[in-house]
Design goal:
Layout: H1 16-31, H2 44-61, H3 73-80, H4 84-96, E1 100-101, E2 109-110, H5 115-128, H6 133-159, H7 166-178, H8 185-200, H9 204-212, H10 214-231, H11 236-249, H12 253-272
Amino acid sequence: MPSEQTMSSEQAPPSEQTRAAGLGDTAWRYLTSPVDPSDQALSRETLVGRARQAVLDLIDDEGLDAGDPLPSAGALAERFAVSKAVVREALSALDALGIVEISNGRAARVRPTDSSLVRFSLSRTIRTAPGEGFATLMDLRSPLEVRAAALAARRIGAAGPSADGAGALRRLLEEMGEALGDSEAYPRLDMRLHAEIARLADSPALHGVLDAVSAPLFRAMRELRVTREARGLVGAEHAEHVRIVEAILAGDEEAASAAMAEHMRAVEAVDRSPAAQGSSPSPA
């Protein structure tokens, strides 16, 4: 089996025959990518990092689910053309991240998705976007919210006005109207409304992503509220929420999508307005 030292910048990439024999597209991408000519050999740290990414791609490419076993360390080492020690280090790193589970005498297995890990990763990405944290959040959020509104309207349209969740939307909207003057309560109810729409959409992926950005989103909503109060705009967002909910309850997908899209544009417009500059919401 090739050692770490054999994977140098001077070595020719594996042949198509080697690739066909089991290297695979995953390893091909990560283990044969260009290396800095000044490096005489790939460092062990680089090899472990590439093997780790190769395992992640293997899980994704082969559609492995929670509880599914990975190939043995030996099989992975042969497939990725690295030593077993490198594979073990890569698997240990993924175990520490909660992506795989390692137990003595058994092959590593895929762990269930950890929502806290997804939440941390997305929140960190938003927080570290230089000067564009709010824009990054809205880029992620807007299309999901519009899609969720349409799906929620479709479900209620199919089940009728007495559909599960329709009553919750009505009650939330009433509470929001009563709390419109409360700068703490209204943003919280706003979050609950959007979460309920995502739940009604019956899309775990949509709900999961929106839940993952809930912390930076709530911070942004509170700061937007301050901007609205300073500019005398409190109340405009509630009218937008009313239009969204009415369209969903009517089962009108097109109207629900349009109302949510307009709401997202209005939120971004408040942040970009001259009066908001210097105090833009920061989801960090």
